[in-house]
Amino acid sequence: MKRRTFLLGTGALTGMGLVTASERWHSKQTSVSAVPLTRNFTVSGKQTLRQRAVAKGLLYGAALQSKQVETDAAFAKAIAQECNIIVPESELKWRVVRPSPSVYHFAPADKLLSFANAHNIKMRGHTLVWHEDLPSWVNSSLNSLNAKQILTDHISTVVKHYAGKMHSWDVVNEAIEPKDGRSDGLRNSPWLMMLGPEYIDLAFRVAAASDPKALLTYNDFGMDYDTPFGRKKRMLVLNLLRQLKANGTPIHALGIQAHLHRDNPEFNPESFGTFLQEVADLGLKILITELDVTEKKLPIDAKLRDRTIAAAYEDYLTVALAQPAVIAVLTWGLSDRYTWLSTAEPRPDGSPVRPLPLDAQMNRKLVWNAIARSLDKTTQRSMLP
Ligand code: XIL
Fold first, then answer.
1. Could you tell me the CA-to-CA distances from 290 to 87, 211, 220, 333, 346 in Å, in that order?
2. Sign of torsion, CA 269 272 278 280?
3. pLDDT for 202-238, tens place per residue?
4. Mean pLDDT score of the chain, rounded to an integer?
5. Could you read off the pLDDT of 92-122 as tens digits, one per residue?
6. Which of 223, 237, 239, 303 could serve as a FRET partner for 247 with CA atoms 20 to 30 Å apart?
7. Is residue 90 within 6 Å of ligand 1 at its C-beta?
8. Atom 13 of ligand 1, residue of closest alpha carbon
9. Residue 19 pLDDT more than 50?
């Protein structure tokens, strides 16, 4: 297929007055191919993403914050229409849920659970063990004598509070970091430093004992692309999963964050499909847990950008949903009104980022079409708890 290439800042776009100084600087090093204007994103029927997912026995949903549904009726309505699963963006991270050693602050996540129940939506928990978003009391008081007790108390208290009510839990998040240089690939997190590699098995066992019904997930990023980093990350994650399964650890699923980078279009459908099959062969389910697309180097023109971002979604989801072990797709947000990428990965030209299915006015964008098309194309599953 013929691809158009945008050489940012070096001609046509500059002439159209669309390129900022910052883009001109970037143009020295990058060119970004955009999706042909002929690519078809047509969707048939009027069903929402939720209805399309249900028709296939799949889950589609989004990350959100309790204050967003409390204060923004249009957003809450869009979530209820489009999602059959939600995940709190921050409310179950340690910093929020456990501000001091003996205080658990469940109110914000409880509100999201009530919202979910009122709309017959499932909820995931994110996350029980992570090296980030730890409150300062953990960083200052954790030692090798108290770490096991602190971790065990945390997981059992939080998971029991929601026992029977959570679809799934991200038990351990981002435990693999090839750059940390260990042969097992484990990240030098505070938990590894204090407890050794066994902290992962411990976390899953405590979670399983606290809620035997929840699907227990290992969640990580960086497995999407056929780059040296991506290949290494896939290999290390597979090794970890194999080891956990061989050890009898109660792990049920892999969560693939899927923070895609449309600026590096190295997506290789074959190798990604093979990776998913290797995970499935271990008897694990797969969830796409945090899908979105960064777009720092894409053209400022919103229509061109939307096409390119939508193509990244559809190319990725077509492969992901072709794997029967994939049971859920969640985007990290539903509307461009609320996305972490506006602060984490802002565009150099200051134009608002557009990574999600709905725009900031809650209108459907081509990303919405791309997800709808991917759901429509896939085969029927039997819905899991
Ligand atoms: C992000 C949130 O979206 C931000 O609001 C917060 O400041 C930092 O964390 N991987 C994860 C998520 O597992 O928890 C992160 O969420 C995004 C990357």
1. 10, 23, 10, 8, 18
2. negative
3. 999 999 999 999 999 999 999 999 999 999 999 999 9
4. 91
5. 999 999 999 999 999 999 999 999 999 999 9
6. 223
7. yes
8. 173
9. no
Write b or e for each residue in 339-352: b if 16 or more Cβ atoms lie within 10 A of its Cβ, otherwise e.
bbbbeebebbbebe
Cα separation, 356 vs 329, in Å, equals: 13
Expressed in angstroms and rounded, the spacing between residue 96 Cα and the centre of ligand 1 is 13
Of 331, 299, 297, the C-alpha closest to 313 is 331
168 lines ligand 1 (CB under 6 A): no
Does the CB atom of residue 323 touch ligand 1 within 6 A? no
Residue 187 CA to ligand 1 center (angstroms) comes to 17
How do 4-6 and 32-34 pair as beta strands?
A: antiparallel
Indicate whether 264 pLDDT > 80. Answer: no
Return the H-helix or E-strand segment holding 155.
helix 147-161
Vertex 332, ends 139 and 110: CA angle to 5°?
65
Structure tokens at 95: 């910093």
By the 10 Å C-beta count (0-12 exposed, 13-18 middle, 19+ buried), 24 is classed as middle
Tens digit of each residue's pLDDT (9 = 90 or more) over 197-208: 999 999 999 999
Smallest CA separation from ligand 1 atom 5, residue: 340
Cβ of 342 less than 6 Å from ligand 1: no
> Chain-centre distance of CA 110, in angstroms?
21
Helical H segments across 211-346, by residue range: 228-246, 269-280, 302-322, 341-344
Q: CA 220: distance to chain centroid?
A: 8
Strands 32-34 and 59-64 come out as unpaired
Is the C-beta atom of 68 inside 6 A of ligand 1?
Answer: no
Q: Which helix (H) or strand (E) holds 60?
A: strand 59-64
Q: What is the pLDDT of residue 38?
A: 85
Residue 382: predicted pLDDT = 85
- Percent of the chain at pLDDT > 70 equals 90
Q: State in Å: Cα 128 to ligand 1 middle.
A: 13
| Nearby residues of 207 by Cβ (< 8 Å), 6 or more positions away | 128, 155, 159, 169, 171, 214, 216, 250
State the pLDDT confidence band at 16, using cuts at 50, 70 and 90: very low
Residues for the chain: how many in total? 385
Residue whose structure tokens are 């990580």: 220
